[in-house]
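Exercise 3.2. Students should predict the tertiary structure of the chain below and write it as structure tokens, then compare their answer with the key that follows.

Predict this chain's 3D structure.
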Amino acid sequence: MRVLTAAEIRGLESCAVESGVSMETLMENAGAVVAAAVTEKMDVTGKKTVILCGKGNNGGDGFVAARLLAAEGAKVTVVLMQGAPASDLAKQAYDKMGRGIEIIMYRTAGGAVDAADVIIDAVFGFSFHGRLPSVMEPLFARAAENKKAFHISVDIPSGAVCDTGAVEGACFKADLTVTFTAMKPAGVVYPAAGFGGMTVVRQVGIKEEHLEMLPCDTESVLLGNICPLFPKRDPEGHKGTYGRLLMICGSVGMAGACIMAARAALRSGVGLLNIAIPHALYPILAPAVPEAIFTLYDPTEAPGEAVLDAIDKASACLVGCGLGTAPYATKLVDAVLENAHGTVVLDADALNILAKTPEKLLVPQAPVIITPHPGEMCRLNGRTMAELRADRLQTARVFAQTYRVITVLKGAGTIIAAPSGETRVNTTGNPGMAKGGSGDVLAGITGALCAQNMQPFEAAYSAVCIHGAAGDLCAEALSQHGMLPTDLIEKLPQVFLQIEGK
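Answer key:
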């Protein structure tokens, strides 16, 4: 699904006006789809409906919805959150509301909000930046405390920044967000996405041909989007057909990370898995992953000829899960960056090793995918966590373009950015996945897809989507509290059954 910025939406609105669709019509249609969202949910006759309206065009959408809901029998109260409407369009919509609608100021609206059956947030739209005015916070808090009411945001939740998904202070908490024309970054990027509830896209008059003409770098990812990327397996295929993945992972005390990544890779269809580990780990890994072959090395002599030969033969390399940061681990990371021919996936300790010298990411001739969590990202780019949270999309994009690597910035709504500027935002997964080991599973899936010659960017966002889909199956079957990263691996076959259309 396309994800459009505020500037792109403004451009589409200008195209609509040039083609003969007035801004007044767009506003009328916007208010109508908001009103329809309420009437689809409930019979509004006699329902106390409070609409919080700003002074701009978002407030104008609210005025239109107020008029239409009142006509359906709702008891409508419009709360002027910023005083009288300021834009010409909003003034026109305000004047059309007519009688029978109560109009009050926000300072006296507490009782109405407490008693409401429906609360509609039409205060700020996609032009909002910064922090919600402090005078509005108490009323937003009271709206949130009214648990019996149905909460709706118009376009995006007020308090969220459209293009970044940032929320600097208070934000309206919606059960449903009705957004217009296309999804906005605030609808898929956290923390803003956490305030919108279910987000539905409704068309308000922008022609489809104008949408199709607009280049779009950012899209959200659903499982259905990635199915075409997985062709049927060749009936005459063999293990060589489906790639050779080399994993350089694991160390004494961290064997589990390697095991989880390996099992996830095998469950994701790779033909041959080669795991390079110190001799001491072989008795642990061999029975845990009997499908793999092993390249053993002496840490005091790493990387060694055997490892270099394995790197040369691999169609993809995964480095870092439980590897540690000892000097020999640094040498192994360097050896992969300097010698790999296939896609390189760098996770966990490989990223910690590179944090002091991220310029080494410019060395490989092969494509590189990095999979940092926010802490690792901050170490790599030298930014603070606050800076990262303020604009996760831009953080991932800038790093991808600067170091020419596909950047998978993990977290709720994982962001996948390519050096070209293409960006994907994942929509699968849940908080039950926030446990040590989940990242190792993702790394294994990613490495396996790369080894099977999937295009690296497609492999990266497909792996994230599959990983999240497995997490959703686990949460459904086992609960978010009780699920484990190892459970994700066991749910991968069910996800691939969906991909295969069975």
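Discussion points: The chain has 20 helices and 17 strands. Residues 34 and 187 are 16 Å apart (CA to CA).
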